[in-house]
Amino acid sequence: xxxxxxxxxxxxxxxxxxxxxxxxxxxxxxxxxxxxxxxxxxxxxxxxxxxxxxxxxxxxxxxxxxxxxxxxxxxxxxxxxxxxxxxxxxxxxxxxxxxxxxxxxxxxxxxxxxxxxxxxxxxxxxxxxxxxxxxxxxxxxxxxxxxxxxxxxxxxxxxxxxxxxxxxxxxxxxxxxxxxxxxxxxxxxxxxxxxxxxxxxx
Length: 202
Description:
The chain is an alpha+beta fold. The protein has a domain at 17-142 and 190-200: 2-Layer Sandwich (Nucleotidyltransferase, domain 5). The protein has helices spanning 12-15, 21-29, 64-71, 80-96, 116-127, 141-145, 147-159, 161-167, 169-173, 181-195, 197-200; strands at residues 34-39, 44-52, 55-63, 103-105. The chain has a 4-stranded mixed sheet, sandwiched between helices.
């Protein structure tokens, strides 16, 4: 830890690993809404936020738990397909609120190519939001649909059924065969788009 007469103690939220104030300052200076992506242990949360002198105001938001409660999602709420769908839902709600452009805000998450935070951003882009990004960091369509999970499940089911049941217990408990995840993803995605067809089809 730093010390000495010139050492400045970082702000509390920076010490707690919650806020990068330098990045936040630059985003606020842009005057544009932020497409905020955050992950917890089991869920993905996406918000479209605008900064005002009195504080941030959330214009639109989506939580991956909603996918289960409202749209029948049976897979975990923290995987890549769930992140994409949560971003899609938040993006559609932002469009409905009149937002067309947002800058990406991944907080202190590492910008790993193809990661879940970029899957959520891809969802917002596919909803119709303009979000500055580099195509190379976004996950592939196959990964967004969960093809990699389905392939692994198929392989594991034939090679080690006991490990298969342990690894995919959350899927199986919810009544979803993980090998069918891509088809399930398309079903849930279509339900979301149907719910917001007046926005998505514009």
